Amino acid sequence: MANTQQLNNLAEDVREEGLNQGSSMKDLVFDPITGDFRQVPRGTHHGEGDVVTEMTNKGFAADTVTPIVYLREGELQKADEKLNQKKTVPAFVEEVDEEGVFHICLEPQASKIHRYLEIPGFYTRDSSMMSNANMSTSRFCVLITEDCPEVWCRPLSPLKGKDWRKAEVFLIPSEENLFSRSKGILEVGILKNKRIMIVGLGSFGSQIAIELAKAGVGSFALMDFDRVELHNLSRHTATVHDLGRLKTNVIEEAILGKNPYAQVDKFPMNINEDLPLLYDEVEKADLVICATDNNTSRFNLSKALVEKQKIGIFGRAITRAEGGDVFRYRPGGPCYCCLVGAGNLQEEEISDVASARRDGRIAAYVSPEDAEAMVQVGLSSDIEPICNMMVKLSLVELSRGTESGITSLEEELIYDYYMWANRRERHYANWKPMPNAGGMPTILRWYGAKIEKEEHCPICSQAIRLEGDTDEKVAGLDDIEIDLQ
Ligand SMILES: [Zn+2]
Fold it and tell me: What residues sit around ligand 1, an ion, with C-beta below 5 angstroms?
């Protein structure tokens, strides 16, 4: 049986002779008669009992591939400061799917990113610590030097040798530089200090949270008491591995996956049952995304926004997501209640039976079979344009007053209310097919509308009445004058 040294010598020979050029990966099959390895293309069928190993451009795969390590730039300074007091600081090493790629952090990330394995390691400035007996179980050493940090690692099994070898190091930029690619379009430094509250982490809230994290928003308050269920998967960012998990946890993980420096506060609760907390959180936020699927929470939020004078972006889909709308509340302007009246719009999309029953949108006496038939969900691709508009409106509001690449959008997005149609069905049945619409509304286009403040609005006029009956006219889509842009 060949040992590692033999394999490496062979790999070296092959490399020197140029045999391995043009194809980075080969298999080596051990020939017990000649005692040599034959080089064969990767994936070629081998006989049973053959000793096969892979060879890469760098040598014999299993033992000489250089491990790849990702370090967080911002954490290196922190580790260095801690090393003023002691010789070593624990490092938390996580291997991604046993692929030879490791992420090293100061704090354990496993609770946040649950598909990682933890491996012991440490930060130090003193290279002699690598041979210190106290460190014998450590597999990784981040050596902080004057110049670039070095990372050394050694195999877990002593059978594979105990020697430290140097890994290839990549730095994850610090918070200031993480979103440098957006510079010139977004004022990243400003977004980093903004706090967004997202109420409802369904198909809307989940996408919007992740988009805002990608844009560089630094702080989030997430509110939703739901868990991921099978029927969510076709439209939600959650995956099958997230089934049964709280949506707040799933989305926190997704946000931190985009921006590990983000601050995420989770509230797995029904906002309608703890209004004081809702008001507190609205007060702390710079902008509130209302992505719930029921009017009770929309009205409660609307009231909190008016009272705390905060910007809110509301979005929703109507039945089967044949269309949808987005409403922006700005302090002093018309509120959500001015838009829809104190009654309910009946055409709301019902995306799951349990929550619709809780909110009274499906009455208790409706049989399970009939209730199931009332669930009418649209496609993820029908939801996506509406989420996108909510994100753009949010970014415009958060960047208002700064010079950025999206300043010009402020001139386009001047309305409080926007409508979108995905298909020429029901509500939009009279709309013309796109090619022969002339100047008339067509699907797949945004239409902005001016909304007037209702003189007797129960929320934003003066006396605040919630969920009470009023004689107010319920404004439907037909009542809204479309302003063709
Ligand atoms: Zn109002």
Answer: 335, 337-338, 457, 459-460
Cα distance between residue 232 and residue 227, in whole Å? 9
Residue 267 token pair? 């509230």
Pick 68-172's CATH classification: 1.10.8, 1.10.10, 3.40.140, 1.25.40: 3.40.140
Q: Using H for helix, E for strand and C for coil, what is the string for 441-477?
A: CCCCCCEEECCCCCCCCCCCCCCCCCCCCCCCCCCCH
Please, are residues 308 and 321 in contact by the beta-carbon 8 Å criterion?
no
Sequence ranges of the domains in the chain: 4-57, 68-172, 185-452
| End-to-end CA separation in angstroms for the chain | 77
- Report CA(342)–ligand 1 centroid distance (Å): 9
pLDDT in tens, 303-315: 999 999 999 999 9
| Structure token pair of residue 26 | 């080969």
Q: 333 CA distance to ligand 1 centroid (A)?
A: 8
pLDDT digits (tens, 9 = 90+) for 151-183: 999 876 555 556 888 899 999 888 778 887 777
- Which CATH number is associated with domain 185-452? 3.40.50.720
